Amino acid sequence: MSPVPALLPTYAPFPFALARGQGDRVFDDRGGAWLDFYGGHCVAGTGHGHPAVLEAITAQAKALVFYSAAGDLAIRLEAAARLTAFAGMDSVFFCNSGAEANEAALKVALQLTGRKKVGAFEGAFHGRTLLALSATDAPALKAPLKGLLAPVTRLPFNDAAALEAADFSELAAVIVEPIQSMAGVREADSAWLAALRAKCDDSGCLLIFDEVQTGMGRLGAPFAAQNFGVKPDLITSAKALASGVPMGALLMTEAIASSLKPRDLGSTFGGGPLACAALVATLKVLTGETLMARALEAEAKLRAALDGLLTVRGRGLLLGLETSHAAELKAHLFADRILVGGSNDPSVLRLMPPLTVTDASLNALLESIHAFARVAA
Ligand SMILES: Cc1ncc(COP(=O)(O)O)c(C=O)c1O
What we know:
The mean pLDDT is 97. Strand 2 (25-28) and strand 3 (33-36) form a beta hairpin. Helix 2 packs antiparallel against helix 11 and helix 12 (291-306) runs parallel beside helix 14. This protein has helices at residues 39-42, 51-63, 74-87, 98-113, 130-135, 139-142, 160-165, 190-203, 224-228, 254-259, 273-288, 291-306, 326-335, 359-376; strands at 18-22, 25-28, 33-36, 91-95, 117-121, 152-155, 171-176, 179-180, 186-187, 206-210, 234-237, 248-252, 311-315, 318-322, 338-339, 348-351. It folds into two domains: 18-37 and 291-376, Alpha-Beta Complex (Aspartate Aminotransferase, domain 1); 51-288, 3-Layer(aba) Sandwich (Aspartate Aminotransferase, domain 2), CATH 3.40.640. It starts with 17 loop residues before the first strand and ends with a helix. The protein contains 14 helices and 16 strands.
């Protein structure tokens, strides 16, 4: 027998196998239910197995599972029209993941400006392809690829003085997460993002919002760009975009789209009919079920109940719980069958449940946290 597992280990999984999911819960292979405040890496925006999404995927699968961009498809045109309108952008390139969307965004910026360098922030996570990894602030992941990664000017996040002092004149683009999720749900100030926008404009440098986590209604607005009132040149999206069917998107302004030629970007699977059908259904569910309002309502409920107990960071349903007992709290929640995320900040746990999260699930989470606090006190 081979000494290595058939499936290459990449991530420390839960100590149980998943069998199915429904709404804001997943079920293990013994039938045990778990409240999913993790969402499979922040993907399950409309919840697990939303009936409207399942129906759309099933109907599309029966009609045509896949055809590349070599064939025009009504569902792809509808997905593009609906997503650009939702995001307040003009055009979209569909790909398959967050890293791929960021790779395309950075590539477009380098190509259109003719500059050779990009700007990114301390604590950033943008993915694992070469340009996206270059922009990511993860020395351990980058060390094996030393010499192959693109030159990046690393800037302090949400630091007005550092922004003012920085020189953007040689930067093709600056890429920023309006809320840095992996870093521990670190939120940018609207004024700082506006100053970043102005500095990019003054320097001929493009502004990219990585909205792989912050988009698709999670913060209570379609994208953080609307939430923070700052319009970037490019927005990247993935994760919750198609309710779990792999999909990435690079949204752009008219100025960028009109500067690109056919074949500058391309992808075999990007914009496949199954993903597009899932995206259209996801957008209909988000608006039809007023899930953005639900995200804000759930945030308000959590904040009110946790006031004085923990520091709550973030917006909508991308929240960080800050406590010096984060590891113990995570274990306590797990014992109560509640899944939450960790982060690169050892004192911050992340909540990124489906936007369909029920009051019963919020109450169960709150009860568990209060019980923990009573014991820890
Ligand atoms: C903000 C952000 N950008 C990009 C990515 C990369 O996305 P993907 O894993 O789909 O390549 C992630 C993944 O966690 C992310 O959180």
